[in-house]
Design a protein that fits this description.
Strand content: 25-35%
Number of strands: 12
Radius of gyration: 20 Å
Largest sheet: 8 strands, mixed
Helix content: 25-40%
Structural class: alpha/beta
Order of helices and strands: EEEHEEHEHHHHEHEHEEHHHEE
Strand order of the largest sheet: 6-7-8-3-9-10-12-11
Length: about 290
């Protein structure tokens, strides 16, 4: 993992106005960064704003306030560099939770995986495209016999492998995975997570991994941010977060993790957190690399 900062988010806010008297503050002033080659995890309960963060980074949503900086160059706001925005859209790819909705049901697997070339209008010969296609499906564990099938003929795990192959076709620098294993069976989850780990080490891309399962995030991430009600309440190196959680909400999440030990499960004490407690406004570095919302 390199020390170069690839993408930085500064005081990002994403508000949605419902009517004249009500505005949803989906993301409410968050800041973090992702290093070159790093796996950065984001965890939190459903509805806390995780997916909104992903969509704000990829340009699906225009941030209400704040900055997204890519390679040291702003890509949001009035000072955004248009050339860098085009570069970022090529170099950042997304893997969604619902693979069935993310894949065109009328297209074959071959057309789906090659689609990024068409969208980006890349001038690559059919022979080179085919070579890259075969290489990629082998990397993600798909047989060539699946190339003529449509998404409806595949299992959930197979569809997610197709999504991964499509995301990797452009050799991205950053992959954003939004709850990519949440809809899969537990045994398939393990296969996909192991696949992510192998591909990340081989391809050296940075990885923004979003999930609500702390156990999964711990297994794959270098650093983890914990999100609650639109704010990041704590950021730390993975083992530091698990061994020395500081925010009460983080402690509550960790206490809820299931352990395959019936005696431990019977005797463990849950830590409950009152989600109505007001949150702080600023992330403060309380120790090296460990940030806490105060």
């Amino acid at each position: 993992m390199g020390e170069k900062m690839m993408i930085e988010v500064r005081d990002l806010k994403q508000y949605f106005r419902i009517n004249d008297s009500y505005t949803v503050k989906a993301v409410d002033g968050i800041s973090f960064y992702i290093r070159e080659g790093e796996v950065f995890g984001l965890v939190g309960e459903s509805g806390c704003g995780k997916s909104t963060v992903a969509r704000s980074l990829t340009g699906i949503y225009k941030p209400t306030e704040g900055e997204v900086i890519y390679d040291g160059i702003p890509v949001t706001g009035k000072g955004a560099d248009k050339a860098k925005i085009c570069s970022m859209q090529h170099e950042i790819q997304t893997i969604f939770q619902d693979s069935a909705a993310a894949l065109n049901p009328r297209m074959t697997v071959e057309k789906i995986i090659l689609e990024p070339y068409r969208i980006q209008r890349l001038k690559i010969s059919k022979e080179e495209q085919r070579k890259k296609l075969v290489e990629m499906i082998h990397n993600v564990g798909i047989s060539e016999t699946y190339l003529t099938k449509t998404p409806g003929e595949l299992s959930g795990g197979q569809r997610q492998r197709v999504s991964i192959a499509r995301a990797l076709m452009l050799n991205p620098r950053l992959i954003i995975a939004d709850e990519p294993v949440a809809s899969l069976d537990i045994s398939i989850q393990a296969q996909i997570i192991t696949l992510f780990q192998r591909l990340q080490k081989e391809e050296k891309f940075s990885f923004f991994f979003i999930a609500h399962d702390l156990s999964v995030v711990r297994f794959i991430s270098d650093r983890i941010a914990v999100m609650l009600r639109g704010k990041i309440v704590e950021i730390a190196e993975t083992e530091e977060l698990f061994s020395n959680p500081l925010h009460p909400y983080t402690k509550s999440l960790l206490s809820a993790i299931h352990v395959p030990d019936p005696i431990y499960e019977r005797n463990k004490k849950m830590i409950y957190y009152d989600t109505d407690i007001p949150l702080g406004d600023h992330l403060v570095e309380v120790s090296s690399g460990h940030f806490l919302l105060q």
